[in-house]
Amino acid sequence: MFKKILIANRGEIALRIIRTCKEMGIRTVAVYSTADKDSLHVRFADEAVCVGPPPSKDSYLKIPNIIAAAEITNSDAIHPGYGFLSENAQFSRICQEHKIKFIGALPEQIEGMGDKASAKETMKKAKVPTIPGSEGLLKDFPEAKKIAGQIKYPVILKATAGGGGRGMRLCWDDKELEEGWHSARQESAAAFGNDGMYLEKYIEEPRHIEIQIAADQHGNVCHLSERDCSIQRRHQKLVEETPSPFMTDALREKMGEAAKKAALAVNYEGVGTVEFLVDKHRKFYFMEMNTRIQVEHTITEEVINHDLIKEQIKIAVGDKISGKDYFPTMHSIQCRINAEDPFKGFMPSPGTITNYHAPGGHGIRIDTHVYANYVIPPHYDSMISKLITVAQTRDEAITKMKRALAEYIIEGVKTTIPFHVQLMDDKQFNKGNFTTKFMETFEIKKP
Ligand code: MV4
Questions:
Q1: How many separate domains does the chain show?
Q2: Are residues 197 and 214 in the same domain?
Q3: Ligand 1 binding pocket includes 240 (Cβ within 6 Å)
Q4: 219 exposed, middle or buried (CB, 10 Å; 0-12, 13-18, 19+)?
Q5: CB of 289 closer than 6 angstroms to any ligand 1 atom
């Protein structure tokens, strides 16, 4: 087993990883920017190393500083959490070269999944369902137009280096496609230094349903069922739940098998997520594969009763997994509590938390790094807490969430709590009747 793990992250996920390490008897090293010197991850780790000034690019993203911190503390492994360096192929490679185990994917796997057109071709070859469209990259506009004629409008142009909604264009006719072709290529060249584009049939009103998988170094792969992440705004997830209210036993079986095929096709090792779009006829299509632990891993943990960070660490040292799939019977929901004003277009609201009281009781979990008098720095993302409920049924999980939200006191900054209160009361949400378009029409009522 590892003796010491360096956590290359901050906030709630750094704390989350430290907690598991403590339970496993593994020593921990925190890294921090000067803006985070009073953070709980610094306080709760066995050792802490300052890696630079507040901007991420000068601290949490500065590879030489992170590697130096691992070397001087004699760490055997680095856990990158999510975001920051978690899907950076170069960082994974440099860890390898320094004989430090990167608790995440191999550089080749990150590169393979990071190029969306080639990831899609890999999945198509492995017989994982993909969305009809171009084969690999488009060579010019006439080719795009020809394929659009075959698959019929609406179509979507996607940047191969994009992801998370960047570098995409929805097109309803030849004219929009021509405009989109030029503007998306320009934008992608500037944003990613890569203007490769591919084309797909546009799936209208899809659901975003992802399958959690785990794969060990011995060829065993299992799936841990799904999470429904359709409640998003500008590609930022707000609420996640498992099981998906749209799921059926037959669909879960098929999507679970497809996700395992996807993992096997790239010789995947570790925990990962295969994202799918699911249309109204319950046809599903591969979208992306995430090679990191995700923010919403918590709800899966609640329903399968396993610690996924512990699974990641065990797989990284070469332990075997059982290889059996999980079909949970409990229901779990997560509300992301962000320091944002939901009445002002989710505008960020950094500053001091002047008063703090967390809800508790049966079936409630809170993952957070904040406390009374904590100062939320303006330099990082605005998520400050994850409120998670678990219960026997969806209705009970929603009831618990309403009760917990009503008990949650966070003063001094604006938060997304009032939005979640309204969502939990929404008739369509309660019916499980939502797609990725839900937030485009959801009206937040001013108090
Ligand atoms: C799509 C799509 C409809 N049809 N592809 C957005 C993020 C990126 N990973 C892929 N995305 C989409 N791809 C086809 N062929 C709709 C989206 C999409 C979306 C997907 C998941 C969750 C939220 C979304 C919000 C807008 C668009």
A1: 3
A2: no
A3: no
A4: exposed
A5: no
